[in-house]
Amino acid sequence: MNSSPVDPTTTGAWAELSRLHGELTVDFRAWFADDPRRAEDYTLTAGDLLVDLSKNYLTPAVRDALVRLGEQVGLEARRDAMYAGEHINTTEDRAVLHTALRLPPTETLAVDGVDVVAQVHEVLDREIAFAEKVRSGEWTGATGKPITTVINIGIGGSDLGPVMVYEALKPYKADRIECRYISNIDPTDMYEKTKDVDPETVLFIVASKTFTTLETMTNARMAKNWLINSLENAGAIESTVAAREEATARHFVAVSTALDKVAEFGIDPANAFGFWNWVGGRYSVDSAVGLSNLIAIGADNWRAFLDGFHEMDQHFATAPLAENVPALMGLLNVFYANFYGAQSHAVLPYSQYLHRFPAYLQQLTMESNGKSTRWDASAVVSQTGEVFWGEPGTNGQHAFYQLLHQGTRIVPSDFIGFATPAHALREGGNDVHALFMSNFFAQTKALAFGKTADEVRAEGCDEAIVPARVFSGNRPTTSILAPELSPRVLGELIALYEHITFTEGVVWGINSFDQWGVELGKKLALQIAPALGGDEQALNDQDGSTRNLIENYLRMRKN
Ligand SMILES: O=P(O)(O)OC[C@H]1O[C@](O)(CO)[C@@H](O)[C@@H]1O
């Protein structure tokens, strides 16, 4: 399975797409007028998601060619290899099995001789038991008070997923529990998140796959000092080693694949929740990394969340490519990136609760596919990766949509909306959610169909500014609609983008599961840190620009 990837540019499908790209005149007005069934024909479902692809550069011939591209690069075989636990993460010689995190307990999946489903459910059951104790108040801090604040300390995949899910599922969370997230090594993050916290009722979750990440371990040590000092200064615990150990055990738990390092940190192994090296950090929110979310929303909602992932996993595994939503969306992204020169992709959730979804997707997509090397170590043969970005509607409309509507670049955009809001407020007799969703539909309509010069003129516009008020239209969007933003639907959405990312990676021949590109900066930071502490040699070892910057930094610094 890890033999050289197919060079996509040599496939018949690529040649066909190239030909179609050259011939195709995208004209959504004409395409919809000529084909009354277009909307239906290109609207698919996956789980609870209705996905309207009709405002994309799809014709029957393009769709066929995209499907053939998937076939010719071996998308289905590689997907099956991933699901079966083959070591498709070549540079780390690992299986890639986030899909096993959501398999029902009735399934089995032997990987390297071990049933991973049994392992997953053993940890899940322990997590659920722990979360229920915290939620019920049975789990108390060192002074006997129930936990009211959960602070997750982690970064990257050990933070972005949990924050995003916490924000997205706030309507499902227990009232008496608040979760906070400390990720940045900027000490102000720690300061702001702890300054008003009662140390007697806080629980820290140290989440780190490796348990070596500089930011997380530094913040975890700071949190431990803060906790012990705060409790001692308040006279809440004795100033003894035993009291400190007891306080650490009551107020700290860990999530990691490196349980030996968790014990070294002083966290009771009984309060550590493991996962496995076959779960990539950015694919880990549905592992124990989501413990803060499980505590917030409870076991039933958490199971529904996992069911949503599984539903999408099954769709990706079984739907024919022509109806396979993640596969088609991934293949379309390749079409835009490689044939239309699209460099970025907007994700525009029409839900304030999804305000961290684009940030979460940035790590998922860009850490996965921002690569120049293929899985057999050869150089890539086409542009790879897309810059994912976005903000919730309607905020984005008043910020960057100008570029989407009238800019010179093509920015394929995914609109995500929900039929029923968590809070159906009204204003002046109006249903505000309906007003909100009217904007969703209006934007996708405007992007697709634009406004001609004649239409502008018909409004009596001064001829001199007609060109500035023309909208070209023909800007591609995908509309994703779901009944409501429930735990299950959120699981489906996350898995959808995981599989879109995978699909793109397979076409480009990329190992989407390593992240060597983040290593160099991490190492250099460790070499540079002594220079900021006054080490002359370390300063002199730097290049001219870095040395100059550090000298200026030291001059400006007040303390
Ligand atoms: O969970 P860990 O091991 O602390 O790693 C945090 C993050 O750091 C990275 O390794 C690199 O940024 C991410 O892939 C990962 O999600």
Automatic annotation (TrEMBL):
Signal sequence annotation: none
Alphabetized InterPro entries for the sequence: G6P_Isomerase, G6P_Isomerase_C, Phosphoglucose_isomerase_CS, SIS_dom_sf, SIS_PGI_1, SIS_PGI_2
Entries under CDD domains matching the protein: SIS_PGI_1, SIS_PGI_2
Single Gene Ontology MF annotation: monosaccharide binding
Pathway where it operates: Carbohydrate degradation; glycolysis; D-glyceraldehyde 3-phosphate and glycerone phosphate from D-glucose: step 2/4; Carbohydrate biosynthesis; gluconeogenesis
List of catalytic residues: E367, H398, K522
GO biological process, one term: glycolytic process
EC number: 5.3.1.9
Domain of life assignment: Bacteria
Reaction equations catalysed: alpha-D-glucose 6-phosphate = beta-D-fructose 6-phosphate
Major localisation: cytoplasm
GO cellular component, one term: cytosol
Record keywords: Cytoplasm, Gluconeogenesis, Glycolysis, Isomerase
Subcellular location(s) of the protein: Cytoplasm
PANTHER family from the UniProt entry: GLUCOSE-6-PHOSPHATE ISOMERASE
NCBIfam families on file: PRK00179.1
Protein purpose: Catalyzes the reversible isomerization of glucose-6-phosphate to fructose-6-phosphate.
HAMAP family hit by this protein: G6P_isomerase
Protein family according to the UniProt entry: Belongs to the GPI family.
Name of the protein this chain belongs to: Glucose-6-phosphate isomerase
Gene (UniProt): pgi
